[in-house]
Amino acid sequence: xxxxxxxxxxxxxxxxxxxxxDTQKVVDWIDETGGKSMAFDFPTRDxxxxxxxxxxxxxxxxxxxxxxxxxxxxxxMAVTFIENHDxxxxxxxxxxxxxxxxxxxxxxxxxxxxxIPCVFWRHFFDSGDEQKDKLKKLIAVRKEAGIASRSxxxxxxxxxxxxxxxxxxxVAVKIG
Length: 176
Prior knowledge:
The strands form two sheets. This protein has a four-stranded parallel beta sheet with strand order 1-2-3-4. Strands 5-6-7 form a three-stranded antiparallel beta sheet, covered by helices on one side. Helix 2 links the parallel strand 1 and strand 2. It is built from seven helices and seven strands; from the N terminus they run αβαβααβαβααβββ. The protein is α/β, with parallel strands linked by helices.
């Protein structure tokens, strides 16, 4: 129905929320729209939450050395995010929260990786000038390096429990 709605309304941008941590199910949902709507990349968020919460950064690399989530299969249709109106702590309701002290690690990841990153309003406007300045710097790195939704990622195979990757052979990122 989202595809039919988009045919009728002709939006400039359409992002759907198919809340599931199963990558294939989210990719299938996008496909069922006829590729007419992007989707929030809940599987990538889930991997980031798990990696930062449990200090297990191996969750950010699949067995074949690729990033997890929708960005692995259809990055130009994946809207990556750290929090949204449903996951933020105010409405947590038992959902996995992004660890407050790891928010910038999450943004270092999504702002340097494929997909279409989305910065949460509260993280940018309501979390102080220091965090806002860090986010602006990461956004500038993405723009200056020309990182796009379909950029390539090479993930370091052995990082002693950390995560390290190179994007488009232009930007290196390490978290953990």
